[in-house]
Automatic annotation (TrEMBL):
Coiled coil: none annotated. Keywords: Glycosyltransferase, Transferase. GO terms for cellular component: cytosol. This is Lipopolysaccharide heptosyltransferase family protein. One of its GO terms (molecular function) is ADP-heptose-lipopolysaccharide heptosyltransferase activity.
Amino acid sequence: MSLLKKFFILLLEKKIKKNEKEFPFNDINSILIRPIGEAIGDAVIHTAHISQLKQIFPNAKIGVITKKSNEIIFKNSKLVDIIINRKLINYFLQFKKWDLLLDFENNFNSSSLLMDRIIMPKYNVIFMKRYKKHYNTDSIDSYNFHFKQKETEKLGNYLKNSVFNQKYNLQEPHSILHTNKILDFYYDKYYWTDNKVRVLLCPQGSKRQIPEIELANLLNSSTIHSISNKIEYVLSYTITSKSYYHNLIKLCPNLNIKYSKETTLVEFFSLTKSSNLVIAVDGGALHIACAFNKPLLSFFADARPNLDIWEPLLPKDIPHHRILTPKTHNPNLTEHFIISDGIKWLLYYLQLYSTKLDKELI
């Protein structure tokens, strides 16, 4: 270990390790959350954790450490009392103001260890921490409780796999997002064509993309002639979605595919809420769809542990089918999907919703 890192570790607060039976439930009036990352999907899943914490500590103040990229998710959960932007000055302003820090990051790093040293929460909980040469659970003592998780455990289950669930029988994790009622009205009444089954396409994420030819194969094979005039697809906006759209419509000349204009994240919430079904690649849009209980056809690389960690948080009664690639070690390698079962699944639900639509029009 370098002398600099040794010196840094010596400066960290030394916490007393405690076992689960010693968890101070009656001493917790404020909870600070450090998310696993700063992506939108990360934040959406953490709203499920916050909802569970509200079940245990209904009167506790809840704070979240955020970046600009995920702040709006926590604001629109309406579960968070204080948003703390990840800046050094803000750490000093939070000195000794928190009873409990829940650290969801999957490894120790200098930035977060410094944050803990400045904020000095009364109790610090860690979950899954990957081993690093210099920073690991043997070399770092700045935590009280370690609720260990399997490498392949679903992120949404972290609180369920801890003392919190042992004492309080937590509800199943489900993400919470609120929408703007005016935007809801617009997207529900004016955005889509009347009397169509509404399918939102989200094939592009920040790191992953369903190849146009593979999505086209799915849509062309599932949208059979007898129902094709009853289905409207909308391609969600990304920086490169215009090019994607032009390629897709060339491959799907007989399908009704609409291009979404640029949307804010709050507008995208309402667009998602107004849809009947969502088709999405592994990414933030997929988890937003889960928050609104949308039937979901998801695309994942068959790469563990990523495949397990980011499993969608949908109630058991909401239809969901996962389309996978061949096995790979790269979670971002989203191509060569095995879509045969996905075609059957999508065809079934397109026909089901088309039939329901016909009955509503009678």
